[in-house]
């Protein structure tokens, strides 16, 4: 127990955890020989008109989406007895909950972040279930647990709730970044999207998500493109196409979410990260 606590206290910054993920990417032999990860892409970046009045509205809706989302992902204690899996889940939830704290601005934000950071990963995984999360984030409505039987694992049953949560979260993250480019919310969103598959209720969906190579196609565009809204919007459209639906136009998306794009630009990214 003591050794576990010691291990969990060694908290990593999101950038360091992302660098650890680079090491899992299969590079070509030249990159392997130089112990480097090379990422080159042209990304579409938008600047949005995110006024405080609109953001207050998004925050209120986000709390509703968050409540439903938590009822899905934190209804039951994980069944797996595997210690590593519980550490992985606990670490994921810790970063997710810290990100949520960053964007909903509770009165005791610093204390909430400290409490999360100091919590043992396995303890968090086992104890911060729906009711504890609801109280922690100050959510007033109490929802029934969202338990899905296998025949209900279609996107129609749970997908819209996950997407509402992710889209609203991306807007709040973008708002924090446009106010302060040093705000950590963008890094935290990039980090949790690497392993978002671990909380998808459908095993097939989880496999498809991993096949998308989320580090390269989701996390790095968020981290270096600095347009969280568009990356999540694009991901949603890719899922739509895979399910036989048509691409949802960006004009319709911004209208639905009452957003306004002020500027669009292509950004060339060419970075080399050491793996050591």
TrEMBL record:
EC number per UniProt: 1.8.3.2
Required co-factors: FAD
Gene Ontology MF terms in the entry: thiol oxidase activity
The keyword Oxidoreductase is assigned to this record: yes
Entry keyword annotation includes DNA damage: no
Domain ERV/ALR sulfhydryl oxidase: 151-257
TM spans (from-to): none
PROSITE patterns: ERV_ALR
Keywords assigned: Disulfide bond, FAD, Flavoprotein, Oxidoreductase
Reactions mediated catalytically: 2 R'C(R)SH + O2 = R'C(R)S-S(R)CR' + H2O2
Protein name: Sulfhydryl oxidase
Organism name: Cotesia congregata (Parasitoid wasp)
């Amino acid at each position: 127990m003591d050794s576990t606590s010691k291990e969990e206290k060694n908290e990593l910054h999101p950038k360091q955890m992302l660098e650890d993920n680079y090491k899992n990417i299969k590079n070509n032999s030249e990159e392997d020989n130089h112990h480097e990860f090379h990422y080159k892409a042209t990304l579409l970046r938008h600047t949005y008109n995110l006024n405080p009045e609109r953001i207050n509205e998004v925050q209120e809706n986000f709390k509703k989406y968050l409540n439903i989302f938590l009822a899905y992902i934190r209804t039951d204690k994980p069944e797996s007895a595997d210690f590593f899996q519980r550490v992985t889940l606990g670490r994921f939830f810790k970063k997710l909950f810290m990100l949520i704290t960053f964007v909903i601005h509770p009165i005791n934000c610093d204390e909430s972040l400290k409490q999360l950071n100091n919590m043992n990963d396995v303890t968090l995984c086992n104890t911060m279930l729906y009711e504890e999360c609801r109280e922690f984030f100050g959510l007033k409505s109490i929802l029934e647990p969202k338990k899905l039987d296998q025949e209900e694992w279609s996107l129609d049953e749970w997908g819209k709730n996950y997407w509402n949560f992710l889209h609203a979260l991306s807007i709040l993250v973008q708002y924090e970044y446009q106010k302060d480019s040093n705000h950590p919310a963008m890094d935290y969103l990039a980090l949790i999207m690497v392993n978002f598959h671990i909380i998808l209720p459908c095993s097939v969906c989880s496999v498809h998500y991993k096949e998308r190579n989320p580090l390269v196609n989701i996390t790095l565009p968020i981290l270096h493109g600095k347009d969280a809204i568009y990356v999540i919007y694009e991901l949603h459209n890719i899922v739509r196409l895979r399910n036989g639906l048509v691409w949802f136009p960006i004009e319709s998306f911004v209208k639905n979410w009452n957003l306004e794009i002020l500027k669009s630009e292509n950004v060339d990214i060419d970075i080399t990260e050491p793996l050591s």
